[in-house]
Amino acid sequence: MTQNENSTAPIVRMEKVNKHFGSLHVLQDIDLEVATGEVVVVIGASGSGKSTLIRCINGLEEFQDGHIEVDGNELTPHGKSGKALQKIRTEVGMVFQQFNLFPHLSVLDNVILAPMKVRGWSRADAVETAQRLLERVGISDQAAKYPSQLSGGQQQRVALARALAMEPRLMLFDEPTSALDPEMIGEVLDAMRELAREGMTMIIVTHEMGFAREVADRVIYIHKGEIAEEAPPEKIFDTPEDERTRSFLARVL
Ligand code: ADP
Ligand code: MG
């Protein structure tokens, strides 16, 4: 683990979080702590609550009871978090399955928008940072193009650069490669691998089990809204203890 030794408090703390969509109990007593610098991979069947779980962490979904604390900011049930939610939104970056870039803005403008609007950076400072980040994800030559002119893999790398431009303390990924053609998956995973190596705290929902095994400090298996098992990757993939984990892995590996 590339954990920051100065900081022992977890950056994410979820306690007994419950969420319902109508009669569907989609998250059940979720307890989860994530340490600074830790890479946590969330796996589980479609519909098990993986997206809902990570969307709760940055307040994209409300929950009905329990506590969620992100870097000392507390989210309260029923979406009444006010300032804490704003704070969390500026500190947590997210990359979605569908890249969600602004189609009418160039790549460069996609990346500089939030730092200028939310952080109040000058255009010159934002552009300098954006260029560095686009270089880092290998698309500095695409800065003037529009999203529709890029491949899926390139668009997702722009989305990553855009999230990083806010200097997030935590990055959330929701199936970042699921919408990509197979030949483009590697370039996005490479960029994420590099980020993990640099010590970024990451929570990643993915079906890329090889990647999970390689980068995760811890893997969490969600079954019908519950954390059924969590363990280091070698443990969960090679000797899973829970019958539900075993049966899921037998289907996907
Ligand atoms: P996963 O990401 O693991 O596929 P989700 O978190 O997206 O699962 O969804 C978990 C369950 O909640 C699914 O049964 C899904 O249909 C349901 N669900 C997700 N979003 C909503 C919503 N906005 N309204 C009602 N049900 C939802
Ligand atoms: Mg999902």
From TrEMBL:
Keyword hit for Transport: yes
Residue ranges annotated for the ABC transporter domain, each copy included: 12-249
Domain of life: Bacteria
Topology in membrane: Peripheral membrane protein
Keywords attached to this entry: Amino-acid transport, ATP-binding, Cell membrane, Hydrolase, Membrane, Nucleotide-binding, Transport
EC code(s) of this entry: 3.6.3.-
GO molecular function: ABC-type amino acid transporter activity; ATP binding; ATP hydrolysis activity
InterPro entries: AAA+_ATPase, ABC_ATPase_HisP-typ, ABC_transporter-like_ATP-bd, ABC_transporter-like_CS, MetN_ABC_transporter-like, P-loop_NTPase
A cellular component annotation (GO) from this entry: plasma membrane
Localisation: Cell inner membrane
Broad class of the protein's primary localization: membrane
Assigned protein family: Belongs to the ABC transporter superfamily.
Protein name as catalogued: Glutamine transport system ATP-binding protein
The organism of origin for this protein: Halomonas campaniensis
